[in-house]
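Lecture notes, continued. The same structure-token format from the folding unit now serves as the input rather than the output. Read the line below as a description of shape only.
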């Protein structure tokens, strides 16, 4: 199940605090998911993909730290989620767990990360375009630009990894479930 490119359903945030609170939630969710995916890949003895997801979590943590610093918030600040300014249960930047496969290659992981970064960029672009205050518009545009940088970075990484063969998911010794 692939998410739609632009899942915003709620009205745009009216204040900078509202926008940054939701951006903080979005970035924290991305960090948590990338770490979760890294743990999954480590469990399945796929250390190369695990390391890639940890690296992505690190980039998202930089955004978390930047938002906290810019807003003068403590690290443990809790921002009410209120469902976010998006219509999906998870924020636009979160990689869907159902897209994972234990035999995935770095190319697959980067495709998932690229889609997440593109959703985040589109999300902030729409917020910038519909903002009712200049402060919110500027902040949303800055976040859009940061996400565009991530899109470019992931595309650069994609150019350095081979695309797997069509039979990449074939497992000569698949997991067995016993009752």
């Amino acid at each position: 199940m692939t998410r739609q490119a632009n899942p915003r359903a709620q009205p745009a945030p009216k204040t900078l605090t509202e926008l940054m609170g939701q951006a903080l939630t979005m970035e924290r969710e991305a960090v948590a998911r990338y770490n979760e995916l890294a743990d999954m890949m480590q469990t399945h003895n796929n250390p190369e993909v695990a390391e890639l997801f940890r690296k992505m979590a690190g980039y998202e943590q930089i955004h978390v730290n930047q938002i906290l610093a810019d807003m003068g918030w403590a690290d443990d600040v809790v921002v009410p989620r209120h469902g976010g300014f998006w219509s999906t249960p998870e924020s636009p930047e979160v990689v869907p767990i159902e897209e994972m496969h234990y035999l995935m290659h770095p190319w697959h992981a980067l495709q998932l990360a690229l889609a997440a970064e593109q959703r985040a960029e589109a999300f902030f672009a729409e917020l910038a375009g519909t903002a009712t205050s200049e402060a919110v518009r500027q902040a949303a545009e800055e976040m859009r630009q940061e996400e565009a940088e991530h899109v470019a970075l992931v595309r650069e990484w994609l150019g350095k990894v081979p695309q797997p063969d069509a039979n990449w998911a074939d497992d000569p010794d698949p997991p067995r479930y016993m009752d």
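Point for the exam: The longest helix spans residues 16-43.
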